[in-house]
Amino acid sequence: MKIKSFGSRIKELLTSHWEPTRGKGAFIRSIPRNGRVLDVGCGNNSPMWFKSVRPDIYYVGLDIGDYNQTNSPSEFANEYIVTTPESFADEIEFLNGQMDAVVSCHNLEHCNEPSRVLIAMVNALKDGGTLYLSFPCEESVGFPHRAGCLNFFDDSTHKEVPCWNCTLKSLQRAGCILVFTAKRYRPFPLILRGLFLEPLSIFRRSVIPDGSTWALYGFESLIWGSTSLHTEVRLDDWGPRATKKGHGVNIQPDGTSALWISGHNLNHFGEVWIEFSNQRPKAPAMVTDTLITSEIPDETIRSKGIYKVAIVENSGGKTDVGKFIVN
């Protein structure tokens, strides 16, 4: 049997697909099924990436030009809007109340009218809509200079360092509920990877493009926000609620056991997992407006116990459902 070296194990650990729980990917997966999404500043192959992660969404991309796009954004975007810097805020204002989610990933610092753009993004949301906003932190003006941007002034197109406290106050005045805020977002898995790769980053004088250098330094300010949800999400019933040890229940054509949850407005959940006392199935649940279905993990069926069933969102939100009993 081939035994892995300690170095190989460390490398495997650091290259595993740990996605930050408050990162952009987690946010995209939290958007309601078939939701309308506005991507403010959609360069760097963003339309292609969005659609690869969530092909069901209606994607609207907005930018002032085709920036670093491998393929034409129109191949992936349902709507692709190219405008001028002077009309950028105008275009967002035209979308008032139309979006389930708005994403602004390192765009605010490029805008001629950042305050106006900020308010327009909140106003573009429907009731219960969500906002993802990231930008360089105020402290980045003193960070080392590296290609790929670690110091705010490494990017010559940056205009003004967003004021953290001013941004929070502006969002709240516009009616945005602050769900998560981090002045310097530093998810632990990426910090660890960034620390490991920092010598390489220094040698190359360039940030590591997976976000680990940013995490190590806390380069990115991050905000998740939402507007008030006037549409009630209601759970009505669920099942099955019990089985015997080792006996499958509600058997599906592929041989797996399955659980169902019925209700109303369930599609306000994005990608969710059904947990059985922290045990998860192999894949996320299937969600429609009135039904959520999920595999029941084999490990749950194999062991006697009382398992707390919960709907777990990518945003970290958890909705208790009930107790599943294995006798």
Overview of this protein structure:
This protein is α/β, with parallel strands linked by helices and 327 residues long. The chain folds into 2 domains: 6-226, 3-Layer(aba) Sandwich (Rossmann fold); 234-326, Immunoglobulins (Immunoglobulin-like, Sandwich). The chain contains 9 helices and 15 strands. It has helices at 6-14, 24-30, 46-53, 88-93, 114-123, 164-173, 188-204, 212-217, 298-302, and strands spanning 36-40, 58-63, 79-82, 99-105, 125-136, 177-182, 220-226, 234-239, 242-243, 258-264, 272-276, 286-287, 291-295, 305-313, 318-326. A 7-stranded mixed β-sheet has the order 3-2-1-4-5-7-6, sandwiched between helices. It has a 4-stranded antiparallel β-sheet with strand order 8-10-13-12, with no helix packed on it. It is globular and about 65 Å long. The protein starts with 5 loop residues before the first helix and ends with a strand. The model is unreliable at 1-17 (pLDDT under 50).
